[in-house]
Design a protein that fits this description.
Layout lengths: L2 H13 L3 E2 L8 H12 L5 H19 L4 E6 L6 H12 L3 E8 L2 H14 L4 E2 L2 E2 L2 H5 L9 E5 L10 H12 L6 E7 L4 H7 L6 H17 L8 E8 L4 E8 L3 E5 L2 E5 L4 E8 L3 H10 L4 E6 L5 E7 L1
Parallel strand pairs: 1-12, 2-3, 2-6, 3-4, 3-5, 6-7
Antiparallel strand pairs: 7-14, 8-9, 9-12, 10-11, 13-14
Helix pairs in contact: 2-9, 3-4
The structure holds N,N-dimethyl-L-histidine.
């Protein structure tokens, strides 16, 4: 992700009649720190749900996997702290695994490896730095059966058809009998979802505004952060939680040698966090080329770890 594509994406997105910026650019060093704060927020129920499922049902998930020896490849693995719960369960039921965490950040993969080996010193861990698309190709030549994991409801940040395209892409790198385990935030009381993206302390607002700050820092933009508001909305018809930055006044913004005009109340769409029903997940599994699926949900039915089999 060089700054070359960052500038191109920013200019392209702000030139559209409905201005938009890709949410992947939230995660510079500062944005990643703010995201850690989001994960601790009372309103942001997702990590707690995922952890509950992992603690209570990891063994059942592991038992569904019809292989004694296999590779576990985790996309966007981060520090691996939640995955460790699952890996321990797999090892405890006597399966032989190699854990292959993939992430953009080499630093976080070092932390991940150390974390995992502290608890499971005999586990074979092979880290793979890079983005989803380039690194997943690296698993093609590995001879063992596979379980690919994609946790944290990251699939929700792929807008519309892009989620289908991405899961098909993963499916292409699996053989019949391989598995895909995905963390998915489910449709629920819309008030609960809305609150998760509109916290009282304004942490999500800081997260969203950091995107403009990043443009100022890295691309020498001149956004006045005080002239933008964060707006998070959930549409129960589409199941999409959408984040916007709203220009509170008419203004011109300069980035490199480009000028972007904002009318008062004009918005930049910055993120989609798609929510699914279990029925939609069944359809998604079929649409993306899987032959079987099973959902493991938390006690409130807020979140699912969905296991797809090719
Ligand atoms: C990383 N991703 C799953 C988060 C989400 O819920 O869409 C990012 C996030 N944006 C605002 N709060 C959290």
């Amino acid at each position: 992700m060089g700054s070359d594509s960052f500038i191109n994406d920013v200019i392209w997105g702000l030139s559209d009649p409905q201005k938009h910026l890709p949410s992947k650019y939230f995660y510079d060093e500062k944005g990643s720190r703010i995201f850690q704060e989001i994960m601790q927020m009372d309103e942001y129920y997702l990590p707690g749900c995922e952890r509950e499922i992992l603690y209570k049902q990891s063994q059942q998930i592991a038992n569904e996997i019809n292989h004694e020896e296999f590779d576990i490849i985790e996309l966007g693995a981060g520090d691996g702290s939640k995955t460790l719960i699952f890996l321990e369960a797999v090892v405890n039921i006597g399966k032989k695994i190699t854990y292959i965490p993939m992430d953009i950040s080499e630093e976080i993969l070092k932390v991940n490896r150390q974390h995992i080996l502290e608890r499971l010193p005999d586990l074979s861990v092979e880290v793979l730095p890079g983005d989803y698309f380039s690194t997943i190709r690296a698993i093609e030549s590995r001879p063992k059966p596979r379980l690919v994991m994609f946790m944290g409801s990251n699939i929700g940040n792929f807008p519309g058809e892009k989620a289908i395209e991405f899961i098909r892409f993963v499916n292409d790198y699996l053989n019949p009998g391989d598995y895909f385990l995905m963390g998915v935030d489910l449709k629920k009381n819309p008030h609960v979802i809305r609150a998760a993206y509109n916290d009282k302390k304004g942490i999500t607002k800081r997260f969203n505004l950091n995107l403009l700050e990043r443009i100022n820092r890295e691309l020498k933009g001149d956004f006045n952060l005080k002239a933008f508001e964060h707006y998070g909305v959930y549409n129960p018809l589409s199941g999409a939680a959408l984040s916007f930055l709203v220009s509170m006044q008419e203004q011109d913004i300069h980035i490199a040698d480009h000028t972007f005009h904002f009318d008062q109340y004009e918005t930049i769409h910055t993120e989609v966090s798609q929510k699914y029903s279990l029925k939609e997940l069944d359809q998604l599994a079929i649409k993306t080329g899987f032959s079987w699926d099973r959902h493991f949900t938390d006690s409130r039915g807020y979140y699912s770890l969905s296991l797809f089999k090719k």
